[in-house]
Amino acid sequence: MQLLKIAGLSGHNSGIYKISRGPKPGTILSFAGDGQIVEWDLSNPENGILRAKSDYKFFCGLYSQTADACFAGDMNGSLYRMHFDPNSGETRAWKTHEKGLFALLELEHGLVSGGGDGTLTLWSKEPFFPKETRRIAGDRIRSLIWDPQRKVLLAGSSDTQIYIVEPEHLRVVDQIENAHKSTVFSLLLHSGGHLVSGGRDAMVHFWQYPEMVLEHAIPAHLFTINDMALSPCGRWFATAGRDKEVRIWDVESKKLLKVIDRVKFKGHINSVNTVFWDKDTSLLCSAGDDRSLMLWKITD
To answer: Is the CB of residue 160 less than 8 Å from the CB of residue 181?
Structure first.
């Protein structure tokens, strides 16, 4: 495996907590603790465009193509809807969570958010409003993914559980108890029929899914695994660690392929909070507490 650092980008004044796809192909958005949302063009990444500014930390966010709007969750539990074109509509916000809004997922006809109070909220994108809120966990919801085959949500929580939730009424239909020793920070599904989870216990767990049987456990980092991302080709996945490293893994063999660190690759100097693998450019994007966003080209 070959790895090349394409760029190291600055512009935020605080840690970056989330990277998502942008409004156009080949663009991404970064959401940070300085309350800024910045758009980056991956073909010309040196100059980011400030798209929004808030007085509160943004912990998560995404851009919805169907709503032509950006949605972002803040430290106070509010969800914002913002249009980058000022003629398209005003910025609106609703507060349905306590202790922060940490996870956000887009569905075909709406959004689901997860909060620090263990609740999920189902949202209408247009018109923008909260349709239903339900407590499903005993602690913070930190990760959300969608299973398109079974048409269910999967939610990772600080109470160590992974919850399987039907989306219409946010009802828990199954769960993995004690999935990790502590917070389940990240989840991903891949086509091989496996669920992968990463936790505060620095472990990556591979689950036979939907049977929810633990097949393999890897001590993947020295500290918390904050985020994971699957490559567009589906062969690799990346983990972001509090130990300042990004690690690349083979999906099938589960072997470690590459460690992106400060010494060898001029990587991050603080916790890596988020990773995003762009399907248009195949670039891996990482960001964290050092306020920097880094772009990586990875090939065989």
So the answer is: yes
Task: Please return the burial class of 242, using the count of CB atoms within 10 Å of its CB with bins 0-12, 13-18 and 19+.
Answer: buried
Q: What confidence tens digit (pLDDT) does each residue in 285-298 have?
A: 999 999 999 999 99
Amino acid at 36: Q
Q: Does the pLDDT at position 100 exceed 90?
A: yes
pLDDT higher than 80, residue 88:
no
| Residue 28 exposure: Cα atoms within 13 Å on the Cβ side | 30
Task: List all residues 6 or more positions away from 183 whose beta carbon is below 8 Å from its beta carbon.
Answer: 139, 140, 142, 156, 157, 158, 160, 199, 200, 224
How far apart (Å, rounded) are the C-alpha atoms in residues 206 and 204?
A: 7
pLDDT value for 90: 82
Three-state SS annotation for the chain? CEEEEEEEECCCCCCEEEEEECCCCCEEEEEECCCEEEEEECCCCCCCEEEEECCCCEEEEEEECCCCEEEEEECCCEEEEECCCCCCCCCEEEECCCCCEEEEEECCCCEEEEECCCEEEEEECCCCEEEEEEECCCCCEEEEEEECCCCEEEEEECCCCEEEEECCCCEEEEEECCCCCCCEEEEEEECCCEEEEEECCCEEEEEECCCCEEEEEEECCCCCEEEEEECCCCCEEEEEECCCCEEEEECCCCCEEEEECHHHHCCCCCCEEEEEECCCCCEEEEEECCCCEEEEEEEC
**β-strands 141-147, 92-95: how paired?**
unpaired
Decide if 37 contacts 70 (C-beta within 8 A): yes
Mean pLDDT for the stretch of residues 23-44: 97
Percent of the chain with pLDDT strictly greater than 70: 100
User: pLDDT band at residue 300, thresholds of 50, 70 and 90?
Assistant: confident
Tokens 């809004």 identify what position?
A: 101
